[in-house]
TrEMBL record:
Residues 4-297 form the CN hydrolase domain. It comes from Talaromyces pinophilus. Keywords: Hydrolase. Pfam families: CN_hydrolase (PF00795). GO terms for molecular function: hydrolase activity, acting on carbon-nitrogen (but not peptide) bonds, in linear amides. The keyword Metal-binding does not apply. This is CN hydrolase domain-containing protein. The keyword S-adenosyl-L-methionine does not apply. Gene3D superfamilies: Carbon-nitrogen hydrolase. InterPro entries: Aliph_Amidase/BUP (IPR050345), C-N_Hydrolase (IPR003010), C-N_Hydrolase_sf (IPR036526).
Length: 325
């Protein structure tokens, strides 16, 4: 068996005026709490260091810039490095999402994987499926989701990477094949399959999913806020469970939850899912919470060797449309 104690660090609301230091302290608290429970991998949400700023229209570039990381080395940047120093001290790997501004001025919704054992960032992913719109809604600010205004689609593809399980594992070390997705990406089977084809064993996904968002079901259908929230949670779990099953891999989803900026609710539901599509652990609050599970990566094998043995059963000659259109 290749067991690994892993965690999703769900983050409660972060507001526009929440000081960066305060949010960083909360992330570090979650990291410590996960480490105390024995986890040696912690996944944090998408855009973990700030509020989900893409719901707002910023005319002033200085205000907007404050939500981005400008340093190419996020583990050393003054605004974020305390999290990485603590991960190193505790010997815990982390996956964390942030808004990336490149030296050329390009903007991506990114995530990195930091290996404590190697003491370095071993992989970076830039969100491919950028949802929402460029222009704000003329009169319904509560549904604004302006990611298309602030981010360009990621240009790094879906490259699986390997990292060693932490040295704290009693049963020895080996590399785990992992892949990162960011929020809306989890709804796209093509993204999962790109990783599945590389033999991925564990998918890491941070998210910020509005509890009320008519884009999900088309602008015309009326739904109560309760119905909308429960539909959004159902669909979130549905895609995590179905795609984990169809690619015979584990997955960890860590969300930002609760009422941000006074009126914008994000769903909770951070969870850890197994390769049979089963939920192994899930959040019970809509606030800061660590969700932990011990997973055995060898459990990916039956699926990969049988029902989803891609080499044996895929019929690529029938799939041309998927890449042509
Ligand atoms: N952050 C993010 O990608 N959220 C999307 C909602 C988009 S609604 C226009 C999601 O898929 O959860």
């Amino acid at each position: 068996s290749r067991t690994w104690k892993v965690a999703a660090a769900q983050l409660g609301p972060v507001h526009l005026d929440t000081p960066r230091e305060e949010t960083l302290n909360r992330l570090i608290e979650l990291l410590r709490s996960a480490a105390l429970q024995g986890a040696t991998l912690v996944v944090f949400p998408e855009l973990a260091f700030t509020t989900f700023f893409a719901r707002h229209l910023f005319d002033n570039p200085t205000c907007l810039n404050a939500f981005f990381e400008h340093d190419t080395n996020i583990s050393e940047a003054s605004s974020t490095k305390r999290l990485f120093e603590e991960a190193q001290r505790l010997c815990v790997d982390i996956c964390v999402g942030y808004a990336e501004q490149t030296p050329e001025g390009r903007a991506f919704n990114s995530a990195i994987y930091y290996s404590a054992q190697l003491d370095q960032v071993v992989a970076k992913y830039r969100k491919v499926h950028i949802p929402g719109t460029r222009e704000p809604h003329p009169d319904l600010a509560v549904i604004n989701h302006l990611e298309k205004r602030y981010f360009e689609p990621g240009d790094l593809g879906f490259e699986a990477f390997r990292a060693p399980r932490s040295r704290q594992n009693a049963d020895g070390e080996d590399d785990v094949i992992m892949g990162m997705l960011i929020c809306n990406d989890r709804r796209w089977p093509e993204a999962w399959r790109c990783y599945g084809l590389q033999g991925v064993e564990l998918i890491l996904c941070g998210y910020n999913t509005p509890a009320y968002n008519p884009y999900f079901w088309g602008m015309s259908k009326l739904m109560s806020p309760e119905m909308a929230r429960s539909t959004a949670v159902t669909q979130h779990k549905l895609v995590m469970q179905a795609n984990s099953y169809m690619n015979s891999c584990f997955s960890i989803a860590a969300g930002k939850a609760g009422l941000e900026d006074g009126r914008y609710e994000l769903i909770a539901g951070s969870c850890i899912v197994g390769p049979e599509g089963q939920i192994l652990a899930e959040a019970v609050t809509a606030d800061d919470e660590v969700v932990c599970a011990e997973i055995d990566l060898d459990e990916c094998r039956p699926g990969k060797e049988n029902i989803f043995n891609f080499a044996q059963h895929r019929r690529v000659e029938a799939y041309q449309r998927v890449v042509d259109q």
